[in-house]
Write a structure and sequence with these properties.
The protein folds into two domains: 65 residues, Arc Repressor Mutant, subunit A, CATH 1.10.10; 120 residues, Four Helix Bundle (Hemerythrin (Met), subunit A), CATH 1.20.120. Strands 1-3-2 form a three-stranded antiparallel β-sheet. The chain is mainly alpha-helical. Helix 7 runs antiparallel to helix 8. It is built from nine helices and three strands. It binds zinc ion (ZN). The site of zinc ion has 8 residues, from strand 1 and helix 2.
Length: 201
């Protein structure tokens, strides 16, 4: 599989996922290496419209100035498989394309955050060990945890598929049919079953 080159929006999300306390547009532009600040501003406003991001006036944890701070919504979600909205229910009215696209993206985004939370618990020192520039994205981190035997190969496959489907929903406005939703739910259940057993042992 060829390595997917991250877009500005993807880089912004990856940086904010590692910084639940948020960042101002200027610091985000610098840390995510997205030139210019206007490009950061446009992308963050789009994410805000999608309901994925909040923009509130607060003190920026990086530059310590009082500014508009971007934080991802639901970043500290606890693992709650029952909380995942059933996409088929939400999509009863196909005419509401935008609403349903948002729900598919939100559901998959919520699953992805829970997968990140699992990786954080397996690998708590990641952020301290790596500097800002070297912080890994989802895919590289998953590869490393699978290569070192911390995540079994079959679980890695389900996680990778869910991440690919989430990226398709968020960046390509891809919608999934009922069978694909079953696939999403099954893959997530397989991961949660492994995680539940692993925590007990
Ligand atoms: Zn700042």
């Amino acid at each position: 599989m060829s390595e997917h080159v991250l877009t500005a929006k993807e880089r912004i999300i990856e940086i904010l996922e590692n910084r639940p306390e948020g960042l101002c547009d200027d610091c985000l532009s610098e840390i995510a290496n997205v030139k210019t600040r206007q490009q950061v501003n446009i992308n963050c406003r789009k994410l805000q419209k999608m309901g994925s991001l909040r923009r509130d006036r607060a003190k920026c944890p990086e530059c310590k100035r009082q500014k508009i701070i971007n934080t991802l919504i639901g970043l500290n979600n606890k693992l709650q498989p029952d909380g995942i909205k059933k996409m088929s229910e939400i999509r009863e009215n196909e005419a509401q394309y935008h609403a349903s696209y948002r729900s598919a993206a939100e559901s998959l985004d919520s699953i992805r955050r829970q997968l990140i939370e699992i990786m954080n618990q397996l690998d708590p020192l990641q952020n301290q060990r790596l500097g800002n520039a070297a912080r890994e994205g989802f895919s590289d981190r998953l590869t490393r945890l699978a290569d070192s035997g911390i995540i079994p190969t079959n679980i890695m496959i389900s996680m990778r598929m869910l991440n690919a489907m989430r990226n398709a929903a968020v960046y390509r406005e891809c919608l999934f049919d009922a069978k694909e939703e079953e696939l999403i739910n099954l893959a997530f259940q397989i991961i949660l079953r492994w995680w539940g057993r692993r925590r007990k042992s």
